[in-house]
Amino acid sequence: MARVILLCCLLCNCLGASLQAESLKIGLNYPRTGNYKDEGLELRRGALLAVEQINRSGGVLDRPLELLSENTASRAEQARRNVERFASQGARMVFGGATSEEAIAAGQRARELGLLYFATLSYANEVTGAAGQRYLFRESNSAWMSARVLGEYLAIHLPGRHFHYILIDDAWGRSMESALRLATRSTDRARHGRTALPRGPLSREQYRSALAKAAASDADVLVLVLLGENLQRSMRLVHNMGLKQRMQIIVPNLSKSVVQQAGPLVMEGVIGTEAWTWDLPRQDNNPAGLQFVERYIREYREYPGSSSASAYSIVMQWADAVRRSGSLDSERLIGALEDHSYSLLKDQQRWRGFDHQNVQSIYAVRVRSRDEVMNDPFKQHYFEIIHRMAGDQAAPSLDDWQQERGEALHLQ
């Protein structure tokens, strides 16, 4: 009889442990296909490393973390549907995306379902500006922040130049163009020309026509407000047309994957911005950042990019907020996140309370020469940091934010 009782107790303990070990699910919206698929791969890799690290440390609230992921193909409506799917599977938070339209649409649907949404790779000012809301946080920097650091660098090193802008006519393209024109004092469109390309698949002839217009101008600075495959294809044409010999090429938001796909010969000398580079933890002697880089190299045999770092940081920060608040309730998590400062993969960052923008240092970078890149063991040491700006200096002020918001002076 005693043996039966003992077996029953052991069985109950096992069942209890099983129930306790029910996973906490989080959902990753990422582009597995389409224009930004390379950035999407990096997002997923960074998220997986964070989930693995958290689970090795005991999980969240004594429960293992489980990553759900769905392809958005960089489409806003698909991102919305994915949020619904994640919610039906029991996800407690959703993050990701590669366009500002995705972030706004998916963030709004997450809010309707009571879920927090953390945006990645969404740079339009309106994400945390005009379209900002309580359930939406953005880890990536805004167009305003990139423009501020670039504007300061260009004012010092390339003053009085003529600009020409080529952009995709979407939320980020328009936002970035407007912010950079203000920062570089190139608002006069008669003097500083532009070509706005339509959203969606573009032909080689459309890229070539836009670049021919830039070449025929008197511009000595060419700004390509492009991302993903759009940028890769344009840069190959820039290289083949010899435009780099007479123009400084500016790509406001650079990424490791773009340089990797286009090639260092095509991209060398291009100036842009990054929120993080794999070499930054070494420069700043950041132990957690160094550990992340080492783990990523060990797992994937290449350097992590800023997209991986962003996804990793979001998962780690959400888990930290759950632990600090002792809750999975979205409203309590908002309270734990707002104005919370932390240092993880770089110097201090802060989830700003009034707009939920992550305020962090932003870096102007230049793509190294092909010879320098090829001398690196992984042939991926792409970026040289040429200028830094603190997050509080780069981010829009409360007054700027309220001007953009109009009557809605608080997040709803």
TrEMBL record:
Task: Give the signal peptide, or none.
Answer: 1-21
Cross-referenced Pfam families, in alphabetical order? Answer: Peripla_BP_6
- Using the record's annotation, list all stretches that form the Leucine-binding protein domain: 24-369
Key words, A-Z: Signal
Q: Does the keyword Signal apply?
A: yes
Where do the TM regions start and end?
none
Q: What's the family?
A: Belongs to the leucine-binding protein family.
Check the record and name the PANTHER family matching this protein: LEUCINE-SPECIFIC-BINDING PROTEIN, PERIPLASMIC BINDING PROTEIN OF ABC TRANSPORTER FOR NATURAL AMINO ACIDS
Entry protein name: ABC transporter substrate-binding protein
Q: Which organism is it from?
A: Pseudomonas zhanjiangensis
